[in-house]
Amino acid sequence: MQLNNRIINIAVDFSETPGPRYEWQGKFSGEEFYKKLLRPSFLDSEQCGNILEVYLDGTEGYGSSFLEESFGGLQREFGTSRVLKVLQLHSEDTLLLGEIDDYINNRYDKHEMA
Questions:
Q1: 10 Å Cβ neighbour count for 26?
Q2: Which structural domain range is residue 12 located in?
């Protein structure tokens, strides 16, 4: 961890019980996490030339819709290469990391097309 890196610990900074995809579906949605925490932190980190570290452990678990809306949303808005330059994920659950990696890497990416 670098001294100036931005850190998000989802269980502490957002919720121990991440919810559904959209805000209208319930509390602590992926959409809410994306809009209120992940996106602003990503932009701030990118602008300052820092890494955004996201710690995923400590929650009761994640639905795929929460993960896709937040991390897939980041990829859709900013493109895979930008996300990979800034975002660093931390978890003891390698399957969780792999799922998020799929959302970031395995999408049609209009930002990467020449």
A1: 12
A2: 6-105
If you search the block for the tokens 């710690």, which residue do you land on?
55
| % of the chain residues with pLDDT over 70 | 90
Full-prediction pTM beyond 0.85? yes
Query: Does 55 map to a domain?
Result: yes
Q: What is the tens place of the pLDDT at every residue in 72-84?
A: 999 999 999 999 9
E-assigned strand segments in the chain = 6-9, 52-55, 87-90
* Number of domains observed in the structure of the chain: 1
Sheet containing strand 52-55, strands side by side: 6-9, 52-55, 87-90
| Within-domain flag for 68 | yes
3-class DSSP state of 94: helix
